[in-house]
Amino acid sequence: MPELxxxxxIVRSLAPKLAGKxxxxxxxxxxxVMRGAPSPLxxxxxxxxxxxxxxxxxxxxxxxxxAIHLGMTGKLLIDGEATPYLRAExxxxxxxxxxxxxxxxxxxAWSHSLPExxxxxxxxxxxxxxxxxxxRLRGKRGRVKALxxxxxxxxxxxxxxxxxxxxxxxxxxxxxxxxxxTRRALALHGVIVTVLxxxxxxxxxxxxxxxxxxxxxxxxxxRHRVYGREGLPCGVCGAPIVRIVVAQRGTxxxxxxxxx
DNA sequence: ATCTATTCCTGGCTGC
DNA sequence: TGCAGCCAGGAATAGA
Length: 260
What we know:
Blueprint: H1 4-18, E1 23-28, E2 47-53, E3 56-61, E4 64-69, E5 74-78, E6 86-92, E7 96-101, E8 107-111, H2 116-119, H3 130-137, H4 144-149, H5 159-169, H6 182-201, E9 242-246, E10 249-253
Helix pairs in contact: 1-6, 3-6, 5-6
The protein binds a DNA duplex through residues 1, 3, 32, 55, 69-73, 85, 101-105, 107, 117, 140-143, 146, 149, 151, 158-159, 208-209, 247-250.
């Protein structure tokens, strides 16, 4: 499931290959991908740049922006082999970009400026200054896990990295955000940055289908300390990792290291 | 403002 | 071996 580090990895592998390339043709094999919106007219236009915005991949053209969200199982593959799950194809001058997505949670959005669902996202966790993060947290009365998953609060974190960051910060997932001390909030900001940077450095986490645009897997799953480790010993204190459900998401934490 | 439940989807798992 | 039933979950949406 691509979160910020996986999307960053994909963008880094796509950008040098696609920047400046001209689109020859676009085909949608699954109308669902565009969620009913009319298909963008891209043929003849060139990609100016490929960037990441939260978990979205933005293809900027001279006449608008195509935003791609990979959902749970979406992949963007350059010159990959067609599968039964091929949902869209963009043919460029010299190469083909395939959008493959088993579960079809992925989506594309087109806008002559910036798609609305992309424009309304919160700040990037790697860009927001620590003090601004602490200030943003203040007054939020929801559970910290739910808040960090909320893309309008902070864009790019998903279930894996929220669980991993909370463990590193020693913060219980059910803790009320506004009740975190400034010291804890600062610590949380710090570990969010380091866990994301560490994951980006090793190509993200490949726990199910995730691969980058060359089909390469990441290895950060080998460094997960809580995610997917229910019942296994905490690497810090040895207590068994517990799994509960918070905000309809499987939530993994150490009951000893992460107290309320 | 914040919460919960529901919908989308399908491979992979469990249990019989 | 086969098959039914359930699970995972990001985001949009509805309703409390």
